[in-house]
Design brief:
Helices cover 65% and strands 6% of the residues. It is mostly helical and 443 residues long. Keywords: Magnesium, Membrane, Transmembrane, Transmembrane helix, Transport.
Length: 443
């Protein structure tokens, strides 16, 4: 599939953007592949390509585009074009893109919807975008708990939605009462009440459940979908395997982008000023932390002037602390994401990481101390850097555990800002330990 996307990119960049060539190139691709290709070409060529895409394909492609890419494209369209674009929009698609649309465009889209889809949209918009209630699938097989098996079998003669392996039962008020798997339904007698076939092991997902936790629950269930209910146990829809896989993909992408201070919604060819402003904030934060570390180094200026070897060896201390801290930080961030870290096991985890840090600190302090002794022929300098390595690696282990936990408590993404804070702490701790010991023992 990557080769087909690459071929489409070549077509969009080098061809003359005739409707025939563009639509022929996208005919065998999914909307998300076409969206990826459009995001991979400069804005001017993207607008030309968009103008030649069939109207029937545009909405599906727009939904799959990243938020910033979508905004840039919609800016080029006038109201009549937008009304035509949103003619067949459903609630799930509008919920997907509503955060990147101004209220005016949302109102235009809502006017195009039928009553049922508008109701689904109003139902979903009250939930945050990181919980299941926002992303419910409304295509599911629902039956009354009072019908017989033969009546339920008629449902299966209709088109069955993807990721469907059961019928959801509700009472007269719409409250979910249980699930009946297809295999039980096929084996039952036609006269049996369907309520007698309810699977006792079938669980449900509350609408306020976080998406990642819902995906984990679905994975443990070994089912292709689970029902989603509200506070009153009313059946709202379902959360299926396709949504779970999309959740994991977006979560992984968000973590990758956040480590560089970027947003997964960023456009590859966003305007220069916008991209510079977004990245500039991150560079500014790093600059502040660098100045902070430099300020601590400045406290030992006299020491550095007298013992030049300390300046030569400073990067070794900082690097060892940074790597050790990053290893611990990565494990803790993963543990937080998986719900493995709680108040009850935090103390044991901290103790374990400090022991690992102490053991590695001693081991590498000996190695670096011996190398320093051989290099500079100074036993005292070897002892200084060895002690500094031990202190910094232990501090890195302590920071690697406590910083992400604290950020998580403050509802700040530890994957985004944890590495910046950790690097600052280990740099300062390493420099102070190394230069402080150098001042005490070498002068």
């Amino acid at each position: 599939m990557h080769s087909q996307v690459a071929a489409l990119i070549e077509t969009l960049i080098h061809d003359e953007h005739s409707p025939e060539s563009v639509n022929k190139a996208i005919s065998e691709l999914t909307p998300d592949d076409v969206a990826l290709a459009l995001e991979s070409i400069p804005l001017a060529q993207r607008k030309q390509a968009w103008a030649n895409i069939k109207q029937a394909n545009r909405l599906d492609i727009l939904v799959e585009m990243r938020g910033e890419s979508r905004q840039l494209l919609l800016k080029e369209l006038d109201d009549p074009e937008i009304e035509t674009l949103f003619t067949d929009v459903d609630a799930e698609d509008l919920l997907e893109i509503t955060d990147s649309l101004p209220d005016r465009l949302v109102d235009i889209a809502l006017k195009q919807m039928d009553t049922k889809q508008r109701e689904y949209y109003q139902q979903g918009i009250v939930y945050d975008d990181d919980v299941v209630g926002r992303w419910i699938d409304h295509e599911l097989l629902i039956a009354s708990q009072s019908i017989r098996t033969s009546e339920a079998m008629r449902l299966l003669k209709k088109s069955t939605p993807d990721y469907t392996d059961m019928v959801y039962l509700v009472n007269r008020t719409g409250r979910w009462v249980g699930c009946v798997k297809f295999d039980k339904l096929f084996k039952a007698q036609g006269h049996e009440p369907i309520s007698s076939l309810i699977d006792e092991d079938c669980s449900f997902i509350h609408a306020h459940t976080e998406l990642t936790k819902a995906a984990e629950q679905l994975e443990r269930s070994a089912l292709s979908a689970l029902p989603v209910v509200d506070d009153n146990h009313i059946l709202l829809g379902r959360f299926h395997a396709g949504l779970a896989m999309e959740t994991w993909r977006l979560e992984h992408e968000a973590q990758q982008m956040s480590t560089a201070g970027l947003n997964e919604e960023s456009d590859l060819f966003a305007p220069v000023k916008r991209s510079a402003a977004t990245r500039g904030i991150w560079l500014g934060i790093n600059l502040l932390t660098a100045f902070l570390a430099s300020a601590f180094i400045g406290l030992f200026e006299a020491t550095l002037q007298q013992v030049v070897a300390l300046a030569v060896l400073m990067p070794v201390v900082a690097s060892m602390g940074g790597i050790a801290g990053s290893q611990t930080l990565t494990l803790i961030v993963r543990g937080l994401a998986l719900g493995q870290i709680t108040r009850s096991n935090l103390k044991s985890l901290l103790s374990k990481e400090l022991k690992v840090g102490g053991l590695n600190g001693i081991l590498w302090a000996i190695v670096i101390g011996v190398v320093t002794l051989w290099w500079f022929e100074s036993p005292m300098l070897g002892a200084v850097i060895g002690l500094a390595i031990i202190v910094n690696i232990i501090m890195a282990a302590l920071s690697g555990v406590l910083i992400p936990v604290l950020l998580d408590k403050l509802r700040i993404d530890p994957a985004l800002s944890g590495s910046v804070i950790l690097t600052t702490v280990t740099d300062i701790a390493g420099f102070v330990a190394f230069l402080g010991l150098g001042t005490l023992l070498l002068l």
